[in-house]
Write a structure and sequence with these properties.
Blueprint: H1 3-6, E1 7-12, H2 14-19, E2 20-30, H3 34-41, E3 45-46, E4 51-55, E5 58-62, E6 65-66, E7 83-86, H4 89-100, E8 104-114, E9 117-127, H5 130-154
Antiparallel strand pairs: 1-8, 2-7, 2-9, 3-6, 4-5, 5-7, 8-9
Length: 155
């Protein structure tokens, strides 16, 4: 069984790849409540506004929205609470050092299940300027036209 077969994607942050230049990626576990895991299995998660921060040596994922699980109405979780990230000490220090440099932030790229555990792919990234975004759009359009031309020539 390959690594891809063992991972089940929950949600992908497509906006992060457009808004940021990715420098480095990390895989982290998340400390969650049971009702949060149930909501994630149902796909009721939004990571577009989420970011990671290191406070007193402890990494946190903030502003990630996990919809309340309807069957857990007796003990509901808070939808936008800060969730602790599980990383090695070396990785925490690398992220903290990168965030200390100007213009860098830590954003989640995707959320997935790996061997039954929820994992987040975290990226240390630098925000793109407007002209960089235009260049990304132009490159994507050129690649699409190239693929269309290649497909048209093969028929």
């Amino acid at each position: 069984m390959t690594n891809q077969e063992q991972e089940k994607l929950i949600v992908k942050n497509r906006r992060a790849l457009f808004d940021y230049d990715i420098e480095e990626r990390f895989e982290a576990g998340l400390v969650l409540h049971g009702s949060e895991v149930k909501s994630m299995r149902a796909g009721k998660v939004d990571v577009s506004d989420a970011y990671a921060a290191v406070e007193r040596g402890v990494p946190w994922l903030k502003q990630m929205f996990v919809a309340p699980f309807e069957q857990a109405s007796a003990f509901p979780h808070e939808p936008r609470r800060s969730r602790k990230l599980l990383l090695h000490a070396r990785e925490v220090s690398e992220i903290e050092e990168a965030l200390g440099r100007g213009g860098f932030t830590a954003v989640p790229l995707r959320l997935y299940f790996k061997h039954g555990r929820v994992k987040v792919e975290l990226a240390v990234a630098k925000g793109k300027k407007t002209y960089d975004k235009r260049a990304s759009i132009a490159k994507r359009d050129a690649d699409r036209e190239k693929q269309t031309a290649l497909r048209g020539g093969n028929r």
